[in-house]
Amino acid sequence: TLAGRTALITGSTSGIGHGIAMQMARAGAKVMLNGFGKPEEIAAARAEVGAAMGGGDAPYSAADMSKPDEVRAMVADCEKTLGACDILVNNAGIQFVSPVEEFPDAKWDAIIAINLSSNFHAIKAALPGMRKRNWGRVVNIASAHGLVASPYKVAYVAAKHGVVGMTKVVALEVAQTPITCNAICPGFVRTPLAEAQVKPLAEKHGVSEEVALRDYLLEKQPSKRWIEVDEVASMALWLCGPGSGGVNGAALSVDGGWLAA
Ligand code: NAD
N or C: the chain end with fewer CB closer than 10 Å? Predict the structure, then answer.
């Protein structure tokens, strides 16, 4: 369904981004990867996604999403290497958990830069090409925390609410073109970013990791289970496939019922 399309997916060496890259590659898109990791992890991701595209290593940009120049260069690299950037998935993100009074300024700056500003710089760089080719898909991986808050995540919640707002503005600006811009708002997804939050909760409350997961991390997720990476990736794939053109400016929840409660 994505044959002939090209896709740039930020933060695709791990977790949700990697899952989206795999599903889009299997659907026939040419995919460029981005993200950090040990050299062997990056090589493995390139080989795996490359195999799903029919062989060879998937192209990769090492751009740091906290640096606007590198974000712009990444989009240009995608347009040069793949001939276009038809699909942009803004997925790279980090988390940090602390009460607001103790929240380190440097963590605030990093989360706003990586989770919010990078989306702006990438969209700004990619839209002219999408307009020229008269087709495009921007998919921003926001979060349930783009719609509601939890304590101790001030930078993350602020950034993700910003992503949802940015999504709506871009959607309005492209509304009369065959380009769409949408956000996906996952609940807790089984990835390194979320799994890292279980152990500190277990220690804080003096319970097992199993209990910490169910009673504390997934406190607000009525399904009481992890969302799987592929359950988020399939939403991203659908937004880029045929029949999705009427969905624009939406914040689509994939959260086991969190926002319904
Ligand atoms: P992850 O830690 O598994 O993957 C994050 C990816 O971003 C990695 O590839 C990492 O290398 C990359 N990255 C981090 N900083 C970067 C930088 N400065 N420049 C370039 N790449 C960078 O995390 P994940 O859970 O897959 O998260 C992906 C996105 O989904 C994030 O935006 C996150 O906020 C969002 N999200 C995750 C969950 C969850 O529960 N896991 C829930 C809602 C939203």
Answer: C
Whole-number Å distance between alpha carbons of 2 and 178: 15
Q: Is residue 175 part of a domain?
A: yes
The catalytic residues are: 156
Structure tokens at 66: 């906290």
Q: Nearest-CA neighbor of 137 among 98, 95, 167, 159?
A: 167
Whether residue 238 lies inside any domain: the answer is: yes
Residue carrying structure tokens 């939890």? 150
Q: Is residue 36 part of a domain?
A: yes
> What is the residue range of 134's domain?
6-189+226-260
Ligand 1 centroid – CA 132 distance (Å): 30
Query: DSSP state, 214?
Result: I
What does the block give as tokens for 26? Answer: 């299997």
Tell which atom from ligand 1 comes closest to the C-alpha of 36: 11
pLDDT interval class at 130 (50, 70, 90): very high
Task: Indicate the pTM of the whole model.
Answer: 0.98
Structure confidence by residue, pLDDT tens digits, 167-213: 999 999 999 999 999 999 999 999 998 999 999 999 999 999 999 99
CA distance 45 to 8: 14
Backbone angles phi, psi at 137, to 5 degrees: -135, 125
> Among 85, 70, 148, 157, which Cα is nearest to 116's?
157
- Gap from CA of 93 to ligand 1 centroid (Å): 4
The answer as to whether 199 is a domain residue is no
Handedness of CA 101, 102, 104, 108 (dihedral sign): negative
In whole angstroms, give the CA distance from residue 173 to residue 185.
21
The CATH number of the domain holding residue 94 is: 3.40.50.720
Number of domains composing the chain? 1
